[in-house]
Sequence to fold (268 residues):
Amino acid sequence: MIHEDDRERVFVASRELRGPTTSSSVRFRVKRGDGGTAWLEANFKLAEISAGTEQEIVGVLRDVTSQKAVEDELSSANLKLAQLATTDGLTRLANRRSFDAFLRDAYAKHTVLSVLLIDIDHFKGFNDALGHQAGDGCLQRIAEVIGSATANTGGLSARYGGEEFAVVLPGVDEERATRVAHAIRLLVRRLEIFHPRSPRKYVAISVGVAAKGDATTDEMALTRDADIALYHAKEQGRDCTVASSLLVSSRLEMPSLVPSLADLESAL
Fold:
């Protein structure tokens, strides 16, 4: 009467009995008369018998089908909540919180590790010209391409914020990561998303690549190296990939967007 997938659990529960003071419980499925499935919970206990009498097991059963359904529904809801907490709602990629946690863990576990930071070129102009609904659609299509780079791998693709994306590639050196970046960039170009305010008239991306090295102090420094490389990709005309190692120094300071006190005084 016990479902074949649950039989071993029932046998194990019965074997756990060591004496009249012990008991064990187990849940299992059985077929109902109407062809459906019911969940039962069994509480097993050794019967108190006279010496020399064959040992017997007493099992008290109760129907827990309704309770199991509620538990499954609650478990599914909790899973959805967990997914919402770690997934970007628009692109369905990992969100920034997931990226930070994944990169921190990957940095600790892997000596070879690369990070890609990706930015959609002239995205504000795209939104201004075509509207935010078209902008959301553009983000979703590009996110699908970026997500495919880590599908069925040990890597992670994430929406880093706004029109920026990030890819973490454990076990991948900078040379291979740069090839991945080139592939993503070309695939985005093949989407041929019309961009009326781009000099190229199509949506393109810029990519910065950085790999963990002896001088990399932590995962934040690795991300900063990729960010600096991304900045240089934009300086070089966008729609290109720049690797951190090709820069004169991966520790170049980003130019400050905040005016200095002297600049403010001069302007006043």
Q: What stands out?
A: The helical segments are 7-15, 65-86, 96-109, 123-130, 132-148, 174-190, 219-235, 261-267. The chain has a mean pLDDT of 88.
